[in-house]
């Protein structure tokens, strides 16, 4: 859409904020027949799925808010109870929505390696309390998957102080795709402080979305400079880098703008949905003693031709004084095979201002813009 060309990244030509257009479908008899079945079955399937989701929400209230609340007298027991039920309910929810099988693999970006790190499986990645998981952000489905996998502490970034605050999974889902808040009116911590607190109290791993807002999954946004006090290799905090990618033929699970309820309804109309999970191989983690920037950059010719190469996007992060963040962005681009843009959270705010203005959402935009100021 040319009216949104202002938010087309100059270096890549990608518009990361617009809902992605589905690939052109075939016109074969089989393809047409499949589309007809999808259109007929989809609405019925969505009704059933949404009904089951409401049942899961009721179970969440019962097991987490109800029984979990009673167990608050014994915090360790409460955390264990809540973590178990959050994982169970999140996986059931993913299955109900159509994510029947979730493929996961470890990926190497070292010289001489291919895309997959041998036969290593995601289960070989050990994640503990206080570990920092760096993830790209493109959908509220991200939150469900991460809850199922880790029952972690989610974070919201204060872009004015480059610190984070802890939020629940429900808050993370609610914030996904919303008008970004640059400042946070709550207690915040540096990322290292948050990691140390979570590790000391056994609160679980910490999930960070350094982009600060969602993209459409076609490219990575500029990182908010959260890692200025980190070093490579990082010895105090264990870092994991995780890429979430969605494959689709008709409707994309990624969510950047628009009505979230309508998006979820359309997602539930899909016969199935696909999520691919890619981990940076553990021995190449930024907190691994074997980590080497030279090996990472030199891998660009074999592992990820356009994604693992430092460019204007990573230079912009480095120019903010966050050279480690620039390297982490490069690593995430390498395993996800996504190009990096120089657009960031403030560009998303400007995009949403314009989008709301064109679609009649001026009042909401103005109200939230004042809040950000």
Outline:
With about 375 residues, the chain is an alpha/beta fold.
Which characteristics define this entry?
373 residues, alpha/beta, 2 domains, 11 helices, 42% helix, disordered C terminus
Q: Helix/strand-derived class? A: alpha/beta
How far apart are the first and last residues' alpha carbons, in Å?
29 Å
How much is the average pLDDT?
Answer: 85
* Count of alpha and pi helical runs: 11
Transmembrane segments: 46-71, 83-102
Organism: Umbelopsis vinacea
Protein name: Phospholipid/glycerol acyltransferase domain-containing protein
GO molecular function, one term: acyltransferase activity
Would you kindly provide a written description of the structure presented here, covering whatever features stand out?
- It is a single chain.
- The longest helix has 42 residues, at 29-70.
- The chain has 2 domains: 28-97, no CATH class; 101-112 and 127-259 and 270-344, no CATH class.
- It has a 7-stranded mixed β-sheet with strand order 1-8-7-2-5-3-4. A two-stranded parallel sheet has the order 6-9.
- It has helices at residues 29-70, 75-97, 141-150, 169-175, 191-201, 260-268, 293-298, 312-319, 323-336, 345-359, 362-372; strands at 103-107, 132-135, 153-158, 163-167, 206-208, 219-220, 239-247, 274-280, 339-340.
- It has 373 residues and is α/β, with parallel strands linked by helices.
- Helix content is 42%, strand content 12%.
- Helix 1 (29-70) runs antiparallel to helix 2 (75-97).
- A hairpin with a 4-residue loop joins strand 3 and strand 4.
- The two termini are 29 Å apart.
- GO terms for molecular function: acyltransferase activity.
- Keywords: Acyltransferase, Lipid metabolism, Membrane, Transferase, Transmembrane, Transmembrane helix.
- This is Phospholipid/glycerol acyltransferase domain-containing protein.
